Input
Amino acid sequence: MIDLVVIGAGGFGRETLDVIEAINTVHETYRVVGVVDDSPSPIFLERLSARGYTHLGNTGHWLATGAGDCFVVGVGTPSIRSAIVAQIGANAFACSPLIHPRASIGSMFQAGDGTVICANATISTNVSLGAHVHVNPAAIIGHDARCGDFSSVNPGAVISGEVTVAANVLVGAGAVVLQGLAVGSCAVVGAAACAVTSVPAHSVVKGVPAR
Output
């Protein structure tokens, strides 16, 4: 068993716990030591407790204790996720990719450490995901696509074939990025948007067509 610490008590942190529990149902792999969150709301702590998970305190306290063999960051915002990993530095190691058993994964797939793929996500052939990528429930990533470190593909979003998504990108719920386009670093494709041209770095696009 691998002792694993989940960072983030919010929505995606608890969805990450769902992924871990589903993995353990197939094969007992991880023991969740607890959940780290620097400023959890009372309702988040209540929901963690109801599931039997312990709040380990803030990031600094956790690092001082040395608890866990590895960690995963269950925080949905790419920039915050990136900052947390930078804060941790070499003091702890990210876990191997966490893939829900009900995700569909094609051939020639690769993903970096700390990546989380939720239930009913569909990933086609020859797809490469960087480190600490989040693929939310029912998201679709087409053939030959590339997603950079810390990118997030939100529920129901579609990354079409041969799309290149740079680091720290957020593709909103139900958004579509059409075939062969590129999304620059730190860009946001708004919920339900349809990107019909490439999206520049550090931009926010929304609507149909997205602009």
